[in-house]
């Protein structure tokens, strides 16, 4: 249970950073701190990833949870026009680039910490049924 005024820890974020760190230690072809190469054309943009992940975090925080409920997750992904697999593809591609990933998660965390913009009301939670 969350205490009033406290946000849940970014459990998924920590897991993804750990995953990125593990990827950076695999293989010899990609030094972990170099600039990423141009992404493949089917990879979502950094902006799309950030916006989608921030919306997923808000969906979880709106319910006082660390992860969004499945129906909320699906609603966010549909609203953003993104599939879950695209998020994982993005992480897999950029995971070995530690500096890039660190900056990415810092941006996401700062955006979430600033809160939902006042011109974007909280969406109604998805209902199952």
What does the model show?
The chain is mainly alpha-helical. It has one domain. It is built from 5 helices and no strands.
- Mean pLDDT value: 79
How many distinct beta strands? 0
Number of domains: 1
Regions with little confidence, pLDDT below 50 for 5+ residues: 1-10
Number of helices: 5
Q: What is the terminal separation in angstroms?
A: 26 Å
Evaluate the radius of gyration: 16 Å
Work out the strand percent.
under 5%
Helix content: 40-55%
Sketch the major β-sheet: none
**Helix-and-strand structural type:** mainly alpha
How would the global form be characterised?
Answer: globular
> What is the string of helix and strand elements?
HHHHH
Keywords:
129 residues, mainly alpha
Indicate the topology:
Elements: H1 11-24, H2 46-62, H3 70-80, H4 84-94, H5 98-114
Helix pairs in contact: 1-5, 2-3, 2-5
